[in-house]
Amino acid sequence: MGLPARFGLYVLFCLVIAAIDTRYAALQVVHDGLNAALHPLRILLAMPWDWAREAGGFFTTHADLQNENARLRQERERLMAYNQDRHALAAENTQLRALLALAPRPGVNGLTAEILQVSADPFNRKVIIDRGRAQGVVAGSPVVDGNGLVGQVTRVFPYSAEVSLLTDREQGAPVQNLRNGLRLIVSGTGADNLLEIRFLDMHADVKAGDWLYTSGIDGVYPAGIPVAQVVSTEPPRHTPFAKALCRPIGGVGRYRHVQVLNQMAVTMDATDGKKRP
Amino acid sequence: MSQRPTRHEKAFLRKGAEMAVPATRARVWSLLGVGLALNLSPWADDLRWLVPDFALMSLLYWGIHAPRWAGLGTACALGLVVDVARGLHLGLNALAYCTAAFVVLMLQRRLENFDVSRQGLQLAPLLLGKEALVLVLGLMFAHGEVDWRWLASGAMAALLWVPMAWLLDRLTGRPIATPGE
Q1: With 60 as the cut, is the pLDDT of residue A8 above it?
Q2: CA-only gyration radius of chain B, Å
Q3: Which helix (H) or strand (E) holds A232?
Q4: Which of A200, B5, B36, B173 could lock B9 by a disulfide, CB 3.0 to 4.6 Å apart?
Q5: Does the beta-carbon distance from B40 to A122 stay under 8 Å?
Q6: Is the CB of A122 less than 8 angstroms away from the CB of B37?
C-alpha cells in the first residue's frame, strides 16, 4: 500500500476514535490505563522542580523566617480561639437539628492532595492531582484550599485525578449572597483571576464587595464554602440581563496543595442515643 | 595509495568516520521518550502555551533521518499518548502527528540533504500548522473555547528546530552539511 493510502487510513482511524471519545465514554478504559502508566513518569519529572524549589527555600533570610514565625503564631492563636467557638457551635447545631428532627447534614471528609501538574490543554483549565480512585476520590467531588472553592474533580484515574478549576468556562457553582441570601450561579470566564455571574436580573441586589458562598442546594458543593467576592456589576447593554464580575477567593492556580471533599454519611449521636435502651 | 575522492563520490557515498551512527529502533524510541518527557514536565503555568511540542520535533527529526522507524504508525501511537497526557479527546494530536509525519515523509529526500537552518525554514509552516490543526480539531470536537495563544508554541518549535537538530546531528555523528557541495 502506498504512503498516501496508509495516511488516509490513519486519518480515518483518528477521526473515528476522536468522534467515539467525544460522544461516548467507551474509551475511558484507554484513558485510565495510559494515565496509570504515565503516573510514575509524571512524579519522576516533578522531582527536579521540587528540588529546585527546596534549594531556593534554603536561602531565605533569618529575618524573613522570624517575621513569618511571629505572624503564624498570631494567626494560630486567632484560629484556636475561633476553632473552640466552632466546636461549641457545631455541637449546638447538632443538638438543635436533633430537636427539630431534621435529617443529618451529609458530612464531608477532606483528602489532601498535591497538584502534580497543570494540564497542557488549550481548551480548558485543569490540574492533575496525585490522589485517585485508589484513595477514594470520586468524580464530582468539590476541591477546596484553605481559603475557598478551587474546582471540581471531573475525571478519576487509578492513582491521579483531573480537577477542572473554577475559572474554566464550563464550570459553574451555585452560590448565595452572604448579605441578603440571594441565590446566584457563578461561572468561570477562562481568565485566571475572574469569575462572572451571567444572566443577572436587571434589578438584582448585588453590589461590589458582596461575598458569595456556596448555597449547597445542588447537592454537589456543601453549603458555606467561600467562592468569590463581587468586584463590579455591569448594567445590561445589548442583552436584557446584567452581569457581575467577581474575584475568586480560593487560590485558583496558585497553590501546590488542595483538599478534595468526599461526601460521607454522618451518624448523629443524638439519634443514636434514642435507639439505645 | 589512495586516490582523492571525486566530487560525486564525496557527495553520495560517505565512508568510515564520515558516516553517521546508524539509527536503530532503540535510539529512535529513546529520543521520542525524551521528547515526551519534556512535554510532560511541569512547566510554569503562565508559560505553558509557549512550550514547544518536543515529542513532535523528535518525531520529525527521525522522520527525516530514519523514516523506517518513525513512520505513520509511530506518529499515531505517540499522538495518542500525548492526547492522554494532555487530557484531550483521543485522536486530536494523533491526527496532527500523522499529518506532520506524512508531509515529512513525502519531502524526506529533500529535507535529508538540507542543513538544519534550511530544514527549519521548510518545517516552520508544518510545526505552526500542527498547533493550528489541533486547535481547529478541538473546536470541531466540542471543546467550546480555544486559547489561540497556543499557536505561539508552534513558532517556538520552529525557532528551536535549528539548535535541536544541530545538537542531535552532532550526537549522531552526522557530518556538517555544506550546502552547494
Answers
A1: yes
A2: 18
A3: strand A226-234
A4: B5
A5: no
A6: no
* A15 φ/ψ angles, rounded to the nearest 5 degrees: -65, -40
Give the domain ranges of chain B. Answer: 23-171
For residues A209 and A62, give the distance between their C-alpha atoms in angstroms, rounded to a whole number: 37
Distance CA A46, CA A115 (A): 10
Cell 435502651 belongs to A277
Q: Does B150 touch chain A (CB under 8 A)?
A: yes
Lowest mean pLDDT of A237-241, B9-13, B129-133, B159-163, name the range: B9-13
Q: Does B147 touch chain A (CB under 8 A)?
A: yes
Q: Which residues of B touch A11 (CB under 8 A)?
A: 95, 98-99
pLDDT in tens, B89-147: 888 999 999 999 999 999 998 898 888 889 999 999 999 999 999 988 888 886 667 77
Phi-psi region of B58 (alpha: psi -120 to 50; beta: other; left: phi over 0): alpha
CB contact under 8 A, B81 and A14: no
Give A120's contacts in chain B (Cβ within 8 Å).
Answer: 39, 43, 48, 51, 85-86
Q: Does A7 touch chain B (CB under 8 A)?
A: yes
> Do B179 and B118 contact (CB within 8 A), yes or no?
yes
- Position A253 pLDDT exceeds 90: no
Using an 8 Å CB-CB cutoff, list chain B residues near A47: none
ipTM of the complex as predicted = 0.82
Residues 103-132 of chain B with CB under 8 A from chain A are: 105-106
- Within 8 A by CB and 6+ apart from A148, the residues are A225, A226, A227, A228, A248, A249, A250
The CATH class of A106-269 is mainly beta
Distance from CA of B176 to the nearest CA of A (A): 30
Domain B23-171 has CATH 3.20.20.370: no
> Which grid cell is A61?
533570610
- Angle between helical axes of B25-40 and B72-86 (0-180°, round to 10): 20
What is the per-residue pLDDT across A39-97, written as a single tens digit (0 to 9) for each? 888 888 888 888 887 887 777 777 888 888 999 999 998 888 888 778 778 877 877 77
Please name which of A4, A41, A55 lies closest in space to residue A130, comparing C-alpha atoms.
A41
Give contacts of A 124-143 with B, CB under 8 A: 124, 126, 128
Q: Where are the alpha helices (DSSP H) in A24-158?
A: 28-58, 62-100
The alpha-carbon gap from B170 to the nearest alpha carbon of chain A, in Å, equals 26
